[in-house]
Amino acid sequence: MDRFLGKEVQGSLLGKPEEQEQSTEEGATLGDDKGHTRKRPRRDPPGNAAHLAGPSWRHIRAEGLDCDYTVLFGKTEADEIFRQLEEKVEYFTGALARVQVFGKWHSVPRKQATYGDAGLTYTFSGLTLSPKPWIPVLECVRDRVSGLTGHTFNFVLVNRYKDGCDHIGEHRDDERELAPRSPIASVSFGACRDFCFRHKDSRGKNPHRKLEVIRLQLAHGSLLMMNPPTNAHWYHSLPVRKKVLAPRVNLTFRKILPKK
Ligand SMILES: O=C(O)CCC(=O)C(=O)O
């Protein structure tokens, strides 16, 4: 999971997102939780009917990109979860809160923590680490996501952005440790932030294709399901937004393969 320390964002992605759903090679731009058009995720988990009574979903589709977005927690519940996350999550310090880029050490521009099942290990910054044991607030969010989607998760990466200067650069969650064909569930609390997808062929100064960046806004209490093969084809980032003054905590629930 060295990509926790992913490259910092290459240029800011400006433009105010509109509130509409698109599914196109040209890219999509989405707003917050208004204007839902379809009622349930396209990929219904077999044998699990929980989604039928669940919230409305936005479906974000482009070439090789398959994501579903909903607001999972109402304001009161999301406020309480955010409060507990702020109180209970213990973030990395010292060497784990630093990143080496081209031989130079920098502070990671956000705080990070990992929690998960006993016995799991993962690679972080060249070290083999164990996640901290689950705490109730993380179990509660994990179980809500599982109940709604039918997917189970054994690991969560917590990213805390103190304000809009904290960010995460473009990267893919494509580590070998992740169970193949398993989605990543991203749940956000606190400040609403822009979140961008860029196709792997559209990166750099002279990209050989020009697929548009897909911009979303991840609202307080929202869930973004990043389904395969999204991470194989698209990089994602949370760019700097200097006007954002409030903190945000993001949880990405994953399924990690146990080491043999
Ligand atoms: O904070 C976010 O929404 C993004 C987190 C992220 O990119 C990741 O955990 O891989």
TrEMBL record:
GO terms for molecular function: broad specificity oxidative DNA demethylase activity; cytosine C-5 DNA demethylase activity; ferrous iron binding; rDNA binding. It comes from the Eukaryota. It is found in: Nucleus, Nucleolus; Nucleus, Nucleoplasm. SUPFAM superfamilies: Clavaminate synthase-like. Residues 1-54 are annotated as: Disordered. PANTHER family: ALPHA-KETOGLUTARATE-DEPENDENT DIOXYGENASE ALKB HOMOLOG 2 (PTHR31573), DNA OXIDATIVE DEMETHYLASE ALKBH2 (PTHR31573:SF1). Interacts with PCNA homotrimer; this interaction is enhanced during the S-phase of the cell cycle. Interacts with nucleolar proteins NCL, UBTF and NPM1. Interacts with XRCC5-XRCC6 heterodimer. Belongs to the alkB family. This is DNA oxidative demethylase ALKBH2. The gene is ALKBH2.
